[in-house]
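INFO  loader      accepted 1 record
INFO  loader      residues=382
INFO  predictor   begin
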Amino acid sequence: MFTRRLPPPDVSFFLLGARGTGKTTWIEQHFAHAVHYDLLLSSESMRLSRDPSLFRAECYAQPNGAWIVVDEIQRVPALLDEVQHLMGKKKQRFVLSGSSARKLRRGGVNLLAGRAETRHMFPLVSAEVGDQRELDAVLTNGMLPLAVTRSRPAQFLSSYCEVYLHQEIQAEALVRQIGPFARFLEVAARMNGQTTNVAGIARDAGIARQTAQEFFQILVDTLLASWLPAWKHKPGVKQVAHPKFYLFDSGVARQLTGQAHLPLTGSDRGFLFETFLLHEMRSFLHYLEREWPVGYWRTHDGAEVDFVIEGREGLTAIEAKSVDRWDAKWNAGLRKFREQHGKAVRAMYGVYAGERALQLDGITVLPWRQFLQRLWSGNLLA
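INFO  predictor   done
INFO  writer      dumping tokens
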């Protein structure tokens, strides 16, 4: 069992995360004595959907200040009205977990008016795993707990993606037909880590552009993907404005392409490496409650930096390359970024698959394991 880096809040909170990230296990570790409602059980969700007041009556039987867990709260969003009442009258505290924010974001749903904090559960991170796998295994299999622990991770990931399509999408009635969405998923997965041409993806998937936009939103709402915005320090500077699309886990991204049985190519490896590093950095920032902006930087003349993090003490720029030997030409984007932003730049890093650290023109180049060790020790971002 892994010790997760997410600390348990002492007030009511939403716990959001994609299926299989370990929400239930984490809740069992930290809230073992709480009353538990599992809305994945159809009998439970149907019972409380028919009469949400039953939930209030049952919670009234619990002590003031008691912890109560509601798993997959988006399945019966009407319970949130009861939760708000109980928080006020009984001072009870709630863990409200979910793998889809879509129903919770629809108009009319009570989101407790800020009375509950929001926490996210991500796939495992290097600091939790103590990972000794080779980089290609990490990128191919990803960081979902069962992909890390099972002896046949490829079979698990295949099943995971199939279950996602049928349970998460069809059961929630998020799309009318699963076929077009399945085609879209494969095309979108092959664009993972790249600036997104929605019209091109729609054309390749054989769907309308508006439908593709809706499908992208479904991926974001079900916590399987996110957008990495183009970072701009000054509004007047001409830079690329389109966001990049990243799936939440490199193993899932690889599986959804339909090419998981093929050897990794150089470009595929590079995008999966970025996906993995972005996951680690976002997890670190969220778990330590450093909600700092993260983006990428690219100018119209081709200068680029993979990640820019805007911290308290300045900007941290990071360039990632999934190769064993660092080429000095990859410093060009970092140097250009420093020229444009001067003293605002706190630190610049290169991250690669080699074994030795380098210092080149004010740029610290680190092997990927060493980079992640510094990240989770708190010595990388400030």
